């Protein structure tokens, strides 16, 4: 378009301004005028910003929430028009005004700063007035819809749709403000977070997991006795609302300085906890993102306060394991651990060591009190409180090991005593009849062993055993050359409970999580790889002989699943050590000879495969040694 044509088009803005300010203009005409302003501003706003700045007050007046209109704070034109129409029409007009405001801020940028004190309260007031429970048809309303409620339900759905679009438009406008004017949001940050955190964690309608997650969270909140909170958490929201809220939060972490945003996030802990686990998880994700943007000097300034905060959040399992589903607790706990790891990655070793020592003191604090309560020195009672802290601790240890790898191996000098104690206590607990209830839990708690991602970890001795063995596996894997574990004083204490985990459950198979099949899954996923990594890390037959001898003896167990598990561990150890472990071949052959004639076909087949593995490793046939 030519300059003259643009000038003619901009002249229309004066007429549009009159329509927006008029008391007598119909709602439809005002909505059309707003859309016209939005389109013209989107294309020509940057060329003639002053012309559009004159329209901003009229647009802001139409964005006022109903509460502000009733108090008469908005312009006369907006009050008379919106007060004289139905709620659905008023919401449609307000939604259009909010989107128009978003375009004006996007195109005019800092030039709209003089209007910020006027439209930010309007945006936040709209969001605060729209309860998350009203975003879509609530569960309570759905349950109450009967045969005679067809027309009423349709009207209710239309009203809900209108309210949803107002909410979505307000969130889009807020996202644009955070992108274009982030330096001036400090006075509003707390309200912005409260308006968006819980909406970014709402269940999205139409997804496969929506109904299941909503039902689970509703059940969780019902157990807590908070009906209002349950209604909010159980409500499904359109994906657009959640995406818009998530856009606001993501933009805040990218554009607002960490020194400004982080304190507000830490202060939001209590409020997010009251809103539900989804809101708390989203807040922790945001903290993790903030840590990723921080410089090392900034971390030095804030790490003490952040560490105390995250340590408090790591108590979430202890406080909620009886009230919430284990998958929900596991997710929130995982978000806290992610934030802790993100902070550690920005720290120096001189800062990490004292912090990790404090974490070790924290996990042992509950053990001391539990031991005293048990009334016996040396006996550790795996109470739910002790279990909760230890499960969280070993998840943190594994996550740190996965990210820091060989750098973190020396820190296992603090972990090994806790790990050995935890394995012994878990093995002892598995023999008690009261622990048979845990058979309904998952035999494998990880969804990704390599990165240490946990799916659903119940507060149970078995889950603790899985996490301890997995953490030790990472230690042995990253201990190149066995500089850490290749010491007798460390090897022997950790070898005994690992082998006990192989043999002890067979004494009471009814207590094994998932039964015999669950036991085999545990051995295949956790124990065999851990023993193999231990053999590979030590690298000397002085360590291999006692370990492999115990594994060989387990192949003579009475239970079929024990023999199968022992064969799996034997095969893994030989594969991990390579040719060097062939010094144990003469001791291995008698056991394999027996297993090749086992009454169970699966054991017999596994024994033949083991022989084939050894033949490939040694480069010669072993049949003559097995038949003699």
What report would you give on this structure?
- Helix content is 71%, strand content 1%.
- It contains 31 helices and four strands.
- The chain has helices at residues 3-21, 27-44, 49-53, 56-61, 66-70, 76-83, 87-108, 116-129, 139-144, 150-180, 189-196, 210-224, 227-234, 239-255, 258-267, 269-275, 277-293, 296-313, 316-320, 326-344, 349-374, 384-404, 412-429, 461-478, 488-503, 515-538, 541-554, 560-577, 585-595, 601-618, 623-627, and strands at 203-204, 236-237, 446-448, 453-454.
- The termini are far apart.
**Beta-strand residue fraction:** under 5%
Distance between the termini: 98 Å
What summary fits the major beta sheet? 2 strands, parallel
Q: Spans with pLDDT under 50 lasting ≥5 residues? A: 70-76, 132-154, 204-236, 374-378, 433-440
Can you count the beta strands? 4
Mean pLDDT: 82
What's the helical proportion of residues? over 70%
Overall, the morphology is elongated
How many H/I helical runs?
31
Structural classification: mainly alpha
Q: What is the strand arrangement across the widest sheet?
A: 1-2
Question: What's the Cα radius of gyration?
Answer: 32 Å
């Amino acid at each position: 378009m030519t300059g003259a044509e643009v000038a003619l088009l901009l002249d229309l803005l004066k007429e549009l301004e009159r329509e927006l300010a008029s008391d007598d203009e119909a709602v439809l005409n005002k909505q059309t005028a707003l859309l016209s302003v939005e389109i013209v501003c989107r294309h020509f706003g940057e060329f003639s910003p002053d012309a559009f700045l004159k329209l901003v007050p009229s647009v802001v007046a139409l964005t006022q929430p109903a509460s502000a209109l009733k108090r008469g704070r908005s312009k006369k034109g907006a009050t008379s028009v919106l007060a004289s129409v139905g709620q659905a029409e008023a919401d449609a007009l307000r939604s259009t005004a909010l989107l128009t405001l978003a375009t004006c801020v996007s195109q005019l940028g800092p030039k709209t700063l003089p209007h910020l004190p006027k439209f930010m309260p309007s945006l936040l007031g709209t969001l605060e007035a729209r309860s998350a429970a009203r975003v879509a048809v609530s569960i309570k309303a759905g349950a109450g819809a009967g045969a005679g409620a067809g027309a009423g339900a349709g009207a209710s759905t239309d009203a809900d749709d209108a309210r949803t679009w107002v909410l979505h438009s307000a969130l889009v406008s807020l996202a644009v403000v955070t992108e274009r004017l982030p330096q001036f949001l400090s006075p509003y940050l707390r309200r912005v977070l409260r308006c968006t955190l819980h909406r970014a964690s709402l269940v999205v309608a139409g997804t496969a997991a929506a109904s299941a997650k909503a039902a689970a969270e509703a059940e969780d909140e019902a157990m807590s006795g908070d009906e209002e909170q349950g209604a909010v958490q159980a409500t499904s929201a359109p994906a657009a609302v959640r995406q818009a809220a998530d856009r606001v939060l993501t933009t805040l972490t990218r554009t607002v300085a960490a020194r400004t945003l982080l304190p507000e996030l830490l202060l939001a802990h209590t409020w997010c906890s009251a809103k539900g686990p989804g809101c708390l998880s989203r807040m922790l994700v945001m903290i993790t993102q903030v840590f990723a943007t921080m410089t090392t000097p900034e971390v030095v300034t804030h790490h003490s306060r952040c560490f105390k905060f995250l340590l408090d959040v790591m108590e979430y399992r202890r406080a909620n394991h009886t009230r919430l589903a284990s998958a929900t607790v596991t997710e929130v706990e995982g978000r806290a651990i992610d934030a802790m790891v993100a902070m550690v990655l920005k720290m120096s070793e001189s800062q990490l060591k004292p912090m990790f020592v404090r974490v070790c003191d924290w996990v042992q604090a509950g053990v001391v009190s539990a031991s005293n309560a048990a009334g016996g020195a040396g006996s550790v009672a795996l109470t739910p409180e002790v279990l909760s802290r230890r499960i969280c601790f070993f998840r943190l240890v594994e996550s740190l090991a996965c990210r820091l790898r060989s750098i973190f191996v020396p820190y296992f000098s603090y972990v090994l005593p806790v790990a050995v104690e935890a394995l012994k206590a878990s093995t002892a607990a598995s023999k008690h009849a009261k622990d048979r209830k845990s058979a309904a839990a998952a035999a494998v708690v990880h969804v990704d062993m390599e990165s240490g991602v946990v799916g659903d970890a119940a507060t149970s001795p078995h889950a603790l055993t899985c996490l301890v063995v997995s953490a030790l596996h990472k230690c042995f894997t990253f201990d190149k050359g066995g500089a850490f574990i290749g010491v007798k004083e460390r090897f022997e204490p950790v070898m005994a409970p690992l082998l006990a985990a192989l043999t002890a459950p067979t004494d009471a198979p009814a207590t094994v999580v998932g039964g015999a099949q669950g036991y085999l899954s545990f051995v295949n996923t956790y124990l065999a790889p851990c023993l193999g990594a231990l053999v590979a890390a030590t690298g000397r037959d002085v360590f291999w002989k006692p370990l492999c001898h115990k594994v060989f003896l387990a192949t003579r167990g009475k239970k079929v699943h024990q023999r199968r598990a022992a064969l799996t561990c034997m095969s893994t150890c030989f594969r991990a050590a390579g040719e060097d472990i062939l010094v144990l071949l003469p001791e291995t052959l008698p056991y394999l000879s027996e297993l090749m004639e086992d009454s169970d076909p699966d054991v017999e087949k596994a024994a033949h495969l083991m022989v084939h593995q050894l033949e490939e490793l040694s480069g010669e046939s072993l049949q003559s040694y097995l038949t003699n």
